[in-house]
């Protein structure tokens, strides 16, 4: 028991031998990844390399076929609704398309999950929502409708909404890809502040300079595998594999 | 020969209209509840629900309501269950309505963006919480026009219950015609009454639609 405990305790997210197939198409071909608490990981790679799928496996949005995955030592069990509910409270996610609830005000978007899942009373949830909205620079938008906000503002609301569940890990799935270029900065600044405060972050991103600046570790995915991983200076400065070299030169505009 | 005034005709039709209204209400409420239950069973991916509900929908959409009424009335009698025209009509219309509503609503749920499911799943909401707080309110907005459109069809569909001897508006109209020999007057009154039943519902649908979009 002792030795297994030690290895499990190593990471807040532990992924071992993860495989995922869509029909006959295997998109993840055995992923091993251990994420330390507070670590910021940027996942890069071509589209179709499996990086989004990997992220979506971590909170059970995708059901993987083989391997194990645990968050905070709790294994991800797909059939077990109670276990999934517990796990998802520990893992927040932010999407490319924001996915705010259009029928609810900004404040209600942030309050919904804590009141339902954590049974927080609405006064406490509202107070927390106001704090979080202030934190992402949108204190005055509490009563606004999502469709009255710009894309960057909507994405910041989505970040506040995810933080309201007080997750231990935050997954960011290309969260600036749907934004106009001038709105990217405001979202990345919020993410950077989260990283500075010690939030564990896993982000799939195309913002290479941001990944380089903020991440502790860079993971390059290619053809369903982690092809190369390490400190960003090392991967950007001295890529070892031809695939990474080619990828870096292709995005270097 | 007795002379029937227009008021006599109208009054008797009005009395019969009660049964049309009642039968419609039963079909709405019963069909709505059954339809909702079938929808949730499908969404929750209960074992076999997809195939069963799919077959159920095909069965009721693919056969005439008239035949369903006959089967409910005479078919149940074959099994030794004697049902009154009332029960048979209520049962057939409830099942018929539920089959259409569950399919209409399934489309409305499918119209809600997939990202809404993903975001609410990622926030650890359970299926019932998702349906109630995230998916339901958004599906409802799209559901109003087709639902009301179908309910108006059901009101007019209750006329078919006359074939199994149920005395509602249309049946009463036929009976009154036989007594008064004034078919045009009677059926004109009849048409007016159906219109008076259906029009307010359509109008209310418009208001509701605007309200739901307003609160968007």
Provide structural commentary.
The complex is a heterodimer of chains A (253) and B (216). Chain A has one domain: P-loop containing nucleotide triphosphate hydrolases (Rossmann fold, 3-Layer(aba) Sandwich), CATH 3.40.50. In chain A, helix 4 (106-117) packs across helix 5 (122-135). Helices cover 41% and strands 24% of the residues of chain A. Chain A is built from ten helices and ten strands. The longest helix of chain A is centred in the C-terminal third of the chain and has 16 residues, at 181-196. With 253 residues, chain A is an alpha/beta fold. Chain B has 216 residues and is mostly helical. Chain B has a single domain (6-214), classed as Orthogonal Bundle (MetI-like fold). Chain B is 81% helix and 0% strand. Chain B contains eight helices and no strands. The longest helix of chain B has 38 residues, at 6-43. Chain A binds chain B through residues 59-61, 81, 84-86, 88-89, 91-93, 95, 97-103, 112-113, 116-117, 145, 147, 158, 161-162, 165, and chain B through 113, 115-116, 118-126, 129, 133-134, 137-138, 141, 215-216.
